[in-house]
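Lecture notes, unit on binding sites. The following record was shown on slide 14. It pairs a sequence with nicotinamide-adenine-dinucleotide.
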Amino acid sequence: MAASEQISTYQSWQDSAEQLISNGLANQAFIDGEFCDAASGATFDCISPRNGQLLTRIAACDAEDVDKAVATARQAFDAGVWSGLMPKQRKKILQAFADELEAHADELALLESLDMGMTIRDSSTMNLPGAVECVNWYAELADKLYDEIAPTQPNALTRIHRVPVGVVAAIVPWNYPLMIACWKAAPALAAGNSVVLKPAEQSSLTAIRMAELAHKAGVPSGVFNVVPGMGDVAGKALGLHMDVDALAFTGSSRVGGLYMQYAGQSNLKRVALECGGKTPNIVLDDVEDLDKAAAAIVLGAFSNQGQICNAGSRLIVDRKVHQPLMDKVRILAEKIKPADPLDPATEFSCLVDARHTANVLRYIQAGNEAGAKLVCGGEQEAGDDCQCYLQATIFDNVSADMRIASEEIFGPVLSVIPVDSLEQAIAVANATVYGLGAAVWTRDMKRMEQAAHDIKAGVIWINCHDHGDISSPVGGFKQSGFGRDKSIHAMDKYVEYKTVWIDLS
Ligand code: NAD
């Protein structure tokens, strides 16, 4: 199914979904340029959170498959079929890969929505264009990065080369499956590495298609492999593998910590972690536009059903503007109704699966039990048979010591914490183990600068929230991880710096 203008109505997305599923979805591992079953023959069920439908059964790879994928990636790397190409040749092929993604945009958007419940509106207008832009951006970068000469001494030539690390394992989560896979794979491939990608078990479908499309575009066999499977089996096998040189992970801080242990127990592979967050929106009493702030706060808390690492899950608000802001936020949040992700009118749909939904409901219960004031939502949507549709939920009068104020919920729950000053707001903002992002709403330059300086987070937004561009890095402080995705800085994860010192004396 190619990207097309006419596939835009609810009915046509539903018809396309039915056709796609009845044609049979790609569900195997992709190793050495071919689809294959898991060596054990094992599979796992791929269930849509949209309606509980069994979409397909996916190959459940284990250590044997991971061995095979890493061996083929190593072989391709050593043979130089990709690592040895001229950068401009890699650029051309990656551009062709981006073209393939674009040509299959409707299909990929649909797969994402079916697989993990992203609204078709977001997957087709944001996720897919973002993935295509990312691959094109790193394709362009492939032949734009120069090496360096160090200013050492007149009778020496000291060159600093960027060389690919070798075999890169990319482990990704389910909340933006295709886009985050591209954030890892595109710079790793642009630098000349071979890649083994393990998608989250909740969202493997676009990764599997992505590998096939990359191969079709000309990425040589063995250079880009996909091993779907369970985290504690296929993911762990990659983490412990003695022949993986670097591992780029996005997911929870708990599992990020496991990958550091795996690296320590095996070959000290280089690890980069993009982990959880508990992003605050800080609204000060001199906020310029309360309506703009309210709209951004609601969008930031509930986009993708709150399943965003940088979801603005905490609202830290000066008491002087607390009530007027809350009146606006509540009105906007109460309009949000969970609905079918395949309806292009839907802005808020289902969570990724029933297990995760139950977990979010436990946090809502914890908020109620701790005495926070439930402003709206708090329940599963009536008539939700597959138990994945939750209401947008807001708790007010939350104190910083409550679990809903400090732990990442990764669902549609906003915790509102009133404060009395900028200093107190910053202290509350910093009072979690996370440091991914923070937003501050004020018209005072000094307060902007103080907040930007004092808040420990990888990205600070002033008078906006979660704005981004492929040219600006994302990543965290503290237990939100280390290393950066996006921008030129992402390349650091996938290259070694090699110094060559020539004595000219
Ligand atoms: P997760 O940590 O449960 O899983 C992430 C990946 O790790 C998956 O591929 C999974 O299969 C694998 N995994 C799980 N258990 C494992 C184990 N025992 N050993 C090895 N691998 C294992 O995270 P998730 O639920 O898929 O995603 C949500 C998390 O991702 C949230 O914490 C969110 O904040 C984070 N996230 C961060 C960013 C960022 O840029 N910082 C972006 C998106 C998501």
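Take-home: The radius of gyration is 23 Å.
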